[in-house]
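Quick one, tokens below:
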């Protein structure tokens, strides 16, 4: 499950220039080196898996080869779709975005994620079914260690300090697309985050519940098709096991974010719109080049 989530998120987020970097220069480098990051994704993803399970040499080769196959599929099948989406958004950026425009982008990004995850599921199932007891124990321990680290980091500082860190991270990501935001625009974004309910406790509970089901599935060692079905339920069909209350909170968070993006787009200057269009079309050109490099 961790491998599928990491791989699908990496491929999708790198492709739409939202690579996971924490702040400042790291984020700037991520946004400006999409082609390099994507081209080196197979060894990077294999290294991420090895961080969770101490793999044998043959397992490392197997994982790298499976990721290379996935990337070949992704280049030819998915990147043209990402390019089309970016070009469409760049064209619409001539005017303020409508709520339905942003909602459509959300739906398409979710569909891209699900398709990549679906493509990865058989590979993840094959990998999990070859783990020995020691490797299963390593996987469980690493997830528990990560949970403790995330809980510690998410609780660091006062509520106001945590809000300030989240706000600054969002400014960095937004300004990679719009250029420098004006004080009034920053105030709009900051107010949006102030109004958001902190979902950290629910998110951590959701994470632990999914991990517990994953470990039960791995230890049961079902036949391959049942393993794939179990992974699909945990990774893609999340509404089948998440609580109704948490699902509604996630939907409300999405509605609030869409509202903020629509409101922000109404304030963009001509220079900011042109900056946004250059960014989007630049990424579209990168994906055209990557698609051709098969």
């Amino acid at each position: 499950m961790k491998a599928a989530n990491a791989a699908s998120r990496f491929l999708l987020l790198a492709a739409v220039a939202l690579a996971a970097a924490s702040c400042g220069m790291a984020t700037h480098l991520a946004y400006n080196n999409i082609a390099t990051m994507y081209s080196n994704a197979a060894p990077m993803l294999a290294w991420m898996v090895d961080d969770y399970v101490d793999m044998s040499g043959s397992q490392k080769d197997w994982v790298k080869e499976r990721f290379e196959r996935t990337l070949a599929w992704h280049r030819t099948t998915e990147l043209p779709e990402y390019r089309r989406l970016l070009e469409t958004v760049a064209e619409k950026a001539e005017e303020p975005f409508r709520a339905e425009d942003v909602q459509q982008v959300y739906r398409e990004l979710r569909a891209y994620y699900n398709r990549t995850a679906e493509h990865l599921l058989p590979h993840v199932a094959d990998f999990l079914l070859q783990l020995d007891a020691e490797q299963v124990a390593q996987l469980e321990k690493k997830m528990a260690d990560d949970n403790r680290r995330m809980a510690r980091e998410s609780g660091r500082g006062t509520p106001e300090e945590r809000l300030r860190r989240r706000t600054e991270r969002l400014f960095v990501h937004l300004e990679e697309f719009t250029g420098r935001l004006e004080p009034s625009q920053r105030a709009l974004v900051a107010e949006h985050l102030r109004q958001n309910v902190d979902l950290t406790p629910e998110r951590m509970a959701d994470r632990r519940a999914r991990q517990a089901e994953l470990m039960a599935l791995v230890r049961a060692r079902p036949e391959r098709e049942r393993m794939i079905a179990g992974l699909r339920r945990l990774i893609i069909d999340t509404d089948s096991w998440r609580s109704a209350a948490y699902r509604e909170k996630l939907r409300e968070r999405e509605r609030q974010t869409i509202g903020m993006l629509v409101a922000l787009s109404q304030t963009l200057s001509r220079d900011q719109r042109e900056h946004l269009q250059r960014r989007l079309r630049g990424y579209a050109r990168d994906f055209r080049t990557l698609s051709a490099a098969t």
